[in-house]
Amino acid sequence: MPVLLILLVAAVVEVAVLVAVGDAIGVLPTIGLLLLASLVGAWLLRREGSRTMHAFTEAARTRRPPHRELIDGVLIAGAAVLIVVPGFVSDVLALLMLLPPTRALLRRRILRSARRSAPPRFAPGGVVPGDVVDGGVVDDVGSHNVRDRNVVDGEVVDGEVVDEDPTPTAPPPIHGSAHRDGREGTSRTD
Fold it and tell me: Does the structure show a pLDDT above 70 at 35?
């Protein structure tokens, strides 16, 4: 319900600002400003989107976590939605999300908020107490079911698997190799 209320308030604010600007400068200049803001926003969206995609690709290539690039991508996608919505307030918010300096401020705030809300045991570099079984952390291996599988308490025995079939398998014939009877040429499988 709060989301619907926020959207309703945003629509009322957009209409009020459009009417106020239209009264101050006229209808045609207001429409011209809306079109100009949309064109500038689309140009910035394309430029910053391609920069962010290049930075994401570079982060993946160098095997470093792309936290910054992912947050930038989300902010740019949000700006794209705001650019499509007609109105000055949404266009101004979108332009602020597209400009690199203001996007960096938003990114830092989002990262700070994520660090505060992340449980300390899953923080980067944190040590998780307990045993890991099938990708889940359990405190007592013998008494928990992990992912609907029973964990069996017992002793681990080191060993190796030995193939008890003594018949060696012949490699498949190679095209252009000699026949079994010694003739040269193309071999056929039996």
Answer: yes
- Distance, CA of 168 to CA of 44 (rounded, Å): 66
Neighbours of 52 (CB within 10 A): 23
Rounded to a whole number, what is the largest CA-CA distance in the chain?
Answer: 100
Residue 131 main-chain phi, psi, to 5 deg: -105, 145
- Tell me the pTM: 0.59
pLDDT at 145: 45
Domain ranges, ordered by start, for the chain: 15-114
| Residue 169, phi then psi, degrees to nearest 5 | -90, 135
Say yes or no to pLDDT of 132 above 80.
Answer: no
Nearest alpha-carbon partner for 32 in 23, 42, 22, 41: 22
- 144 and 132 in contact (C-beta within 8 Å)? no
Distance, CA of 175 to chain centre: 47
pLDDT digits (tens, 9 = 90+) for 99-120: 999 999 999 999 888 888 876 5
CB 133 within 8 Å of CB 140: no
Q: How far is CA 15 from the centre of its chain?
A: 35
DSSP state of 129: P
